[in-house]
Amino acid sequence: PGKMIPTSLGRTHYVLEGSGPLVVMQHGIALNLEVMNVISEALVASGFRTLRYDLYDRGWSETDAARFPITSFAKHPIEFTTTMHVTQMRDVLEALGLAETPLVHIGHSTGGGVGLAYASTYPSHVRGLVLAAAVVLALNLPLMARFVDVPIIGPFLVRATLRTKKFGRSAYVDPDMPAIASRLEKAFALVEANCRYFAAIRSTNQHFVGFVGSAEGTYTKLCSEQHIPIHLVWGQSDSIVPYSQCQRLHAIAKEHQVDVTETAFEGIPHNIWSPDAKPQESVASIIDFVTKVRAGGSWAE
Hints:
By secondary structure, this protein is an alpha/beta fold. It is built from 9 helices and 9 strands.
């Protein structure tokens, strides 16, 4: 649906819309930029410019298959580290002439971790962060995730489990809702049809801070040194990134006198703004946050 630009490891698919202060939005580990559509539409209607892009080998973005061939199931030659994700974001902004443009970042799950890392790397460019069920603190990975690196049996178990279609369902209130079921079917089909897709997910799971280790130190340093406004959006029934992590992030921000706000939803799991969850309520809280950041006067248009 968008355009393609060359980036350091391949090419990146993006959509740039609207005018006004820049908001960059980042999807989670296994989805694509289309999950941010509802937020982008509301922001553009409210006078903001939005940039969405697909992580490498998700959506329509792709790493260079000739340079980085997949030689075995679910094993990517690239380490999908936090730094690599920050580099992709920087590549996109530079290619679009927006590298020096002040921005607010909205990130869901892994995308929230990308936003935090970008803000800590380029602190003078970020005016606010929306961390939505964000991968920041160390996650307690499910048992199956611990098997992925076991030689021979690991890839077999992961592939067999994916075929049962259990992965991903816990992120939704109603995984059998037609729109959600269709999304899940496409994702599971991609595991078989596109070897780079699941290899990229697996590599992120192995190398991205939060899945491995914790970014609590980075977050605490950002709060203590930069004091940029932070908005937390969470489902209180999130089994993937528990609500207790939202509470911890909120407490750290308050301790360092950061302007932090929180919107949390009872009974909602990980995918907060999917059609079966709280899309309009989530969007309303985000619009309120970015409007207040703009009113603060430090966000150049």
